[in-house]
Specification:
This protein has 154 residues and is mainly alpha-helical. 86% of the residues lie in helices and 0% in strands. It starts with a helix and ends with a helix.
Length: 154
């Protein structure tokens, strides 16, 4: 009796697996259409980050922006922000939508600034300029990037 039940269960599992495979084919077909668009946005947003880290390595001979002193970090951070927002505006210029990829890059840059802010506070260093830059970055995130993502979600 258990052998018959197992065989019936195996047939039902096989039917479910075929249905899942058929659904995956459709999803894979949709993903194949959207993948070049996502990769293009990742490459466009990665270029300013790579350039700022290349300049960091060329000028300061280090690859860790957290250990930079105040003025050097601010220069690195402003180059990073200027390049990133230039890439965002270039996407808008070419009528591309701002996607979740852009949001993740903004969060990455914001977290980098927050880490440096916390480090500066613990060491007792002046962090006024960094606080102003972070506030401006949060304002840009709230007013320019979040509504586009919210509209896309709805």
């Amino acid at each position: 009796m258990t052998i018959v039940l197992t065989a019936v269960a195996a047939v039902e599992v096989a039917e479910v697996a075929v249905a899942v495979v058929e659904e995956d084919v459709v999803v894979v077909a949709d993903a194949a259409v959207k993948k070049p668009d996502i990769m293009k946005k990742i490459i466009i947003h990665t270029i300013p980050i790579a350039v700022s880290f290349f300049l960091l390595a060329a000028q300061d001979q280090i690859c860790n922006p957290i250990i930079l002193k105040g003025p050097e970090f601010l220069k690195f951070y402003l180059i990073l922000l200027a390049g990133f927002y230039a890439s965002v505006f270039s996407l808008k210029f070419f009528k591309e939508t701002i996607s979740g990829i852009t949001f993740y890059f903004v969060i990455f840059i914001l977290i980098l600034g927050i880490i440096k802010l916390i480090r500066g506070l613990f060491l007792g260093k002046p962090v006024g300029f960094l606080i102003i830059i972070l506030i401006l970055e949060i304002i840009v995130l709230i007013f320019f990037i979040w509504p586009n993502l919210k509209q896309k979600i709805n």
